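Hello,

Following up on my earlier ticket. Below are the two sequence lines again, exactly as submitted.
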Amino acid sequence: MAAQDITRLMSTARVRLPGATDQALQLELFSVMDEFFKGSNVWQEDITFTVPGNDPAGTVYDIVSTAPSLIDKLMWVFQQPTDANQRPSVPVAAAMSTPGELTLRTQPSSPVSYIATVALTVLDPTNRDGYVSFPAWVLARYRAVILDGLLGRMMTQPNKPFTNSQLAIYHLRKFVSGISAARVDVTRNNTYRQQAWRFPAFSGGSQRGRGGWANPQ
Amino acid sequence: MALDTLQDYVSYARVLLQDTVDSPYRYPDADLLMALSLALPEAKKLRPDLFINYTSLPTFTVKDTTAVVFDDMYRIALVYYMCGQAQLRDDEETQDQRAAAFLGLFSSKLLTVA
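Thanks for your patience. The regenerated structure is below:
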């Protein structure tokens, strides 16, 4: 994470939370980021894995994120195209009842590579400075939302110099609405005025009869 | 920082207690260190967030240069608790008032901005 970004966040929080310690702020920041990522799905990663042919039904395939993170949700799985210039177009039914353990509804009869897109959230351990690890762009993009979450959670702590139930409600409402807005941004791939609504999958995924450009579903 | 080590805490508590001349001291070092040891669990009860990095609470017995790990903003509250405990020992009316004042300051310093 960019040091200047987190320094700015912490400085702003310290000014608005007189008497708050850095350790308490770092502790709450972890919870704020966890709630933010689980609610918005903004942190995603494509994980490629290969399935050998003729595995028995119900075989579990372990998928691992490259970043230190917890796999929160399986967004979708697509068959990897053989041509590198093509984008994935064949959806695959899969499930992930335990984070990181993926099962396929139908096993392939020959070796196939799949691309699983997963939503990630934060995970211990924190870095050596005590800060939770997540991509730097998230803080740059959603600084105000994260600050609202941090202020709101800190202000709900009982019997502290910075306890303020009225402002806590204010900040937490802004945090929740910020998460919703972020979730919509992700659905639209941060594209201005793109329709969140799409044709259902049975009709081909779009009016043109193919999957939308954004999320391949 | 003015308050870093056990010596710093005991020395400043003696200033507030008007007990800076060793002839001998009215309040022994052991008593003040015991009060400091008692201050930590009392502070933890009020402000658990100040003890996030503690695995266990220390007990102090020797006045030396051992660092007292505590957030800078709240160190003075520990000194007030030491003074309050020391003044509780005396049975004069004025000392009782001072004891109550110090112990009240301990709480208010931890729980309020003032």
